[in-house]
Amino acid sequence: MLASEIHTPRDLGSLLSLMQKNPEALILAGGTDILREQGMRTVNFPPVVIAVHEIPEMGKLILTERFLEIGACVTLAELETYNPAAMQPALISSIRGIATLPIRNLATIGGNIASKLRFMDLWPVLACLDSLVEIRNSSGARWININRFSDDVGAPSIPQEIVLTRLRIPLERWDVNVVVKVGQADYPTSDSAVFVVTARIGKGIVNDFHLVMAGEHCFRSRELESAVIGRKLPIPEHEMHLLANEYRAQYGSSAGSVRAGMGRLPELAFKMLAR
Amino acid sequence: MNGKLVPSCLVPAYLARGAEIITSEGLLAEEEGKDIAAAFADSGLYTCGFCLSAKLMITADLLRREGHPRDDVILENLGSTNCRCTDPESMLRAVNRAAEYRAQRIYNRAGK
Question: What does pTM read for this prediction?
Answer without folding.
Answer: 0.90
